[in-house]
Amino acid sequence: MNISDQKYQEILSYILGELNYSERKSTEAWINSSKENKKIYEKILKKSLFVRWGLKSNQFDTNKELKKFESRINSRMRYITRFVAAASVILTLSFSIPYLWDQYQANQEMIALNTPIKPGKKGAQLILSTGKQVQIDSQSKKIKEKDGSLIQLDPETGLEYRESTQKITKLIFNTLKTARGNEFNMKLADGTHVWLNADSELRYPVQFTGENRKVYLKGEAYFNVAHDNEKAFVVNSYDQEVKVYGTEFCVNAYNEKEIKTVLVEGSVGVRPNPNAKELKLKPGELGFADLQSGEINIRKVNVRPYIAWKDGDFVFENESLENIMLRLERWYNVKIFYMNEECKYFRFSGDMKRYTDVRSLLYFIQETSNAKFEINNNTIVIMAK
Question: Which of 62, 88, 220, 384 has the greatest number of beta carbons closer than 10 A?
C-alpha cells in the first residue's frame, strides 16, 4: 500500500466518521481521483473491521449463541471475551486483522462488498415566508427576510437568525426541511440551538413576539433552549406540546400517534393534547405520549441512545432490529425489505459512528444472530438463516 501513515490515518478517520465537512470533501476527492486510490480505500475499508463491536441479542440464549458463534469461526478466532455487568451479558468480539480480512471476504456475496451505501450528510431546504425555496448546499450566503431579518446560511456551521433591531408586530414563518440522508442545525433568533435529524421539518417564526416562543416539529429534533423567564419555549408536534423556559431535550415525532420526549437537563411540561393535563419530566426521563388516548407514560432511561445521533453516533440499547433498520433507513436513504417477519423482533445493543459504512454493522449483526443480509442496489434485504 503505497501511501503515507498520515494518509492511511486520514482514510481510516474518514471511514470511522471522525472528519469534519471540509476534511471529508478533501478525502473523497483523493479517493475519486484515480482507480488506484479507490483500491487503497477499499482495502483500508475492509481492514477497518477490526474495530470491535458489542452486540447482544435478548431474543436468544446467550450461551447457546456463543457456542454457535464459536463453531462458526473455529480455530481462526483469536479471542472471545465475555463481560458481565448489570445483569446483562455483552459479547465483545476481538479479532486479528487477517481473520477479519478472510471472514469479510467470505461474506462478500451476502453483504455485497462492492455495493456502496453512503451515509447521510449535512443538507437542508429552507422555505421562506414568501414560499421561495432555498437549497442549502456548498455555498455560504446571506438572505434578508421581508421584515428585515438577516439569515446566515452556511453548509458547515448551519443556519443562523439574528435578532432584529426593528419592532416586530406580526409573526412571519420560515420552514427548515431535511430529506432522508440529511441532517442540519440552526440557531433561532432568540439564541436557541436546534439540531434537525433526517426526514424532519421545523416551522418557526423568523422573530419571536407575543407571550411565547412557539415552533412546530415533524420528525426529530434536539433543542438547547435559550433561557427566558418571561417567554416559554413551546414545541408543538401534532397537538402535543412541550413547554420549557430554558433546557435541553429531544422530541421524536416521526410517528404522529406516538411521540417521545427525552429530557437531558432542566424541566419540561408535556401535554399530549390541548385538553390533557400537563405532566413534568425530570432529567433522564422519557415521556411517551399516546395522542389517541391522551395519556403519557413516563420512565427513567439512559438518554444517550435517544440523543446520540446529534453527536454523530448510533447507539442501540436492547433495541429491536426493526427499530434499528428504521433509523438506518432514514440516515442512509435506503429501503428495507424483510423476507422473514421474525427477524424484526431480534434485539441488539451496539455503538457506531453515523458517518461510516453500514456494512460493518450488518456484518457483525449477521455473525452474532440468525439474521442474514443482502444488499441489492439501494435495498437491504433481511432474512433468517
Answer: 220
Choose the final residue of a domain: 305, 340, 361: 305
Backbone angles phi, psi at 362, to 5 degrees: -60, -40
DSSP letters, 220-274, are: EEEEEPPP-SSSEEEEEETTEEEEESS-EEEEEESSTTEEEEEEEES-EEEESST
Q: Summarize pLDDT for 28-66 with one digit per residue, the tens.
A: 899 889 988 888 887 777 665 434 344 433 443 434 444
> DSSP code of 158?
E
pTM for the whole structure: 0.76
What confidence score (pLDDT) does residue 52 get?
39
Residues 292 and 207 reside in one and the same domain: yes
In a domain, 113, yes or no: no
Alpha-carbon distances of 20 from 14, 59, 363, rounded to whole Å: 9, 38, 26
Q: Please check whether residue 319 lies inside any domain of the structure.
A: yes
The tens digit of pLDDT for each residue in 299-325 reads 999 999 999 999 999 998 889 999 999
Give the pLDDT of residue 337: 95
Half-sphere exposure in the Cβ direction for 320 (13 Å, CA): 8
Q: Do 321 and 343 touch, CB atoms closer than 8 A?
A: yes
pLDDT, residue 89, reads 28
Estimate the crossing angle of helix 21-31 against helix 35-47, to 10 degrees. Answer: 120
How far apart are the C-alpha atoms of 14 and 24, rounded to whole Å? 6
Domain that holds residue 29: 5-48
- Distances in Å between the Cα of 357 and the Cα atoms of 83, 119, 311 are 27, 7, 17
Q: Tell me, yes or no, whether 291 and 355 share the same domain.
A: no
- Check if the beta carbon of residue 281 is closer than 8 Å to that of residue 268: yes
* CB-based burial label for 7 (10 Å; 0-12, 13-18, 19+): middle
- DSSP secondary structure letter of residue 278: P
List of the chain residues with pLDDT < 50 = 49-106, 108-109
In one-letter notation, the amino acid at residue 79 is Y
